[in-house]
UniProtKB/TrEMBL annotation:
The lineage of its organism: Eukaryota, Fungi, Dikarya, Basidiomycota, Agaricomycotina. Residues 119-129 have a biased composition (Polar residues). Residues 130-155 have a biased composition (Basic residues). Residues 156-169 have a biased composition (Basic and acidic residues). This is Unplaced genomic scaffold GYMLUscaffold_184, whole genome shotgun sequence. Transmembrane segments: none annotated. It comes from the Eukaryota.
Length: 505
């Protein structure tokens, strides 16, 4: 009697049945000759001759099982699962199923009965099933791994911050921030007449050496261990230097990982001359997200070659990059909550109107991210006039360079230079504050990540998701009047959205 395992092997190759039948005949034949008897040797020769002409009958139980297996193969019920391997996946040999298989077998028109047996198609079905199962299994493993890492991270954060992640802590950090008040009025910053953007200007101080710049400015030796808010005369916070998280991993893992992934992105990407040499300097820059302006009829996602899109997607999904995004997003919400709320509302309105717009990071309110991949990301003085005029632009510095001798952020309108340690972030009004970096030393590497939103996005949303040229011809006189008033007062209203700070005595 065959075992279950032996029977399972049979169904994989129908030819085996014939071999087994042969073997069974031989077994019966030997049993009749007195295979186990010492006396039977004399008659072996005679009986062997008879066997060639008259085969002995096969065991009825064996024949029944062979029939069932044959039906299984022809009916295709054994093709379901080769990789299951468990007892629960054993084919059902119940009488009802056998009857069904038998009725199919009795029908001569049934194509499964006629050779050739489609063994190749059986294999394809198995392979497809296996692939599908493997995909599901892999995805489940990935989700599980992601959830596990997230849990570990949260536990680690809670341990290292002594459970201080709540609104109270955020308020406390604002209160504890170092505030510097400058003798300067934000009202006079060069913003466009509509208040949505900055004004395009050319570089004015490109020719100055490091020492010449330092001689003209005040140096703030910020080391990223505390929050620093720089205000105008009225106490309006215009620049936010964000302290690095207290998590010791920030310096041992996040920043090194940032450098690694940004360097890898530059090496693996394929860039045009325009992406490597541009008005902001001679370094590779790639922007991803959504934007508006420059002749576009409506906000749209940035476009990339297939290769660069993969590189950018790798960057966006990187854990260190996501933590940087989280840091600047929460920093902006903490230090400028009203403006943050405006960014959030605008982002939600635009994406609700057009769900295809890409969101780089789940919790970020910024529409676009530029990865400045170096190898020496150093910019001459400029304004990013296309960005939202009163809005923030978060800059994160990274790289292997001596931050006491290069890479500092120069804010020309404020007359200050801020030390910008690698791994730290500063939020500025990039559309209206002229800014640049001091050069780093030969052989050093510097990268940066900037997060921002175009001013045209806010204008488009303010018009009820229309461009000016589409909105104005159809607007009522009252709407036109409101349109003009809104633009004339936007900057003034925005100034009121900046949180005011008082320097500590
Ligand atoms: Fe800039």
């Amino acid at each position: 009697m065959l075992t279950r395992g032996q029977a399972k092997a049979i169904r994989l190759d129908i030819d085996l049945m014939e071999l087994l039948a042969e073997a069974e005949r031989e077994r019966i034949s030997r049993g009749e000759d007195g295979y186990n008897s010492d006396d039977g040797s004399a008659g072996v020769g005679e009986e062997s001759e008879d066997e060639e002409h008259e085969l002995p009958p096969l065991d009825p139980e064996f024949l029944r099982m062979i029939d069932e297996l044959e039906l299984d193969i022809y009916a295709g019920d054994l093709t379901d699962d080769d990789d299951a391997g468990s007892e629960g996946d054993w084919p059902d040999l119940s009488p009802s199923r056998s009857v069904h298989s038998l009725s199919m077998a009795a029908d001569p028109s049934h194509n499964m009965l006629h050779p050739p047996i489609p063994t190749s198609s059986l294999n394809i079905q198995c392979s497809s099933t296996q692939k599908r199962k493997r995909r599901v299994r892999n995805q489940a493993q990935k989700d599980k791994k992601h959830a596990y890492k997230k849990r570990r991270r949260n536990v680690h954060r809670a341990e290292t911050s002594h459970g201080k992640y709540d609104k109270g802590v955020s308020r406390k950090r604002v209160e504890e921030a170092e505030v510097v008040q400058l003798d300067f009025e934000a009202d006079i910053l060069p913003i466009s007449s509509t208040g949505f953007q900055g004004k395009r200007t050319r570089s004015l101080f490109k020719h100055l050496t490091r020492n010449e710049v330092l001689a003209r400015t005040i140096y703030y030796n910020w080391d990223a261990t505390y929050d620093l808010v720089i205000c105008d005369r009225e106490g309006r916070g215009l620049v936010y230097c964000l302290a690095n998280p207290r998590d010791p991993q920030w310096n041992t893992y996040v920043h090194p990982e940032l450098c690694r992934i940004l360097e890898k992105a530059r090496v693996n990407g394929k860039f045009t001359a325009k992406e490597m040499f541009h008005r902001r300097g001679d370094y590779v820059a790639q922007t991803i997200g959504y934007s508006h302006g420059g002749g576009q009829t409506c906000p749209s996602n940035t476009k990339h070659s297939k290769r660069n899109a993969q590189v950018l997607q790798t960057l966006l999904s990187n854990d260190a990059v996501q933590r940087v995004s989280g840091l600047v997003n929460s920093g902006y919400r903490r230090f400028c909550p009203e403006m943050y709320a405006e960014y959030k509302a605008n982002d939600e309105a635009l994406r609700s109107s057009n769900p295809t717009l890409r969101k780089n990071f789940p919790d970020s309110v910024f529409a676009a991210t530029t990865f400045n991949l170096g190898p020496q990301t150093v910019t001459p003085d400029h304004v990013d006039h296309g960005n939202n005029g009163p809005g923030g632009c978060a800059i994160t510095s990274a790289g292997d360079f001596d931050d006491a001798k290069g890479g500092e952020l120069v804010l020309w309108d404020l007359g200050i230079v801020i030390r910008f340690p690698p791994g730290s972030s500063i939020i500025i009004l990039s559309a209206i504050l002229r800014h640049s970096n001091l050069p780093i030393q030969p052989g050093e590497k510097r990268y940066s990540i900037t997060q921002y939103s175009a001013g045209a996005l806010f204008r488009f949303a303010a018009n009820g998701m229309k461009n000016d040229k589409d909105y104005l011809p159809t607007a009522t006189p009252e709407q036109v009047e409101e349109y003009i008033r809104e633009r004339r007062t936007r900057w003034e209203k925005s100034l009121k959205k900046f949180t005011t700070y008082t320097p500590q005595p």
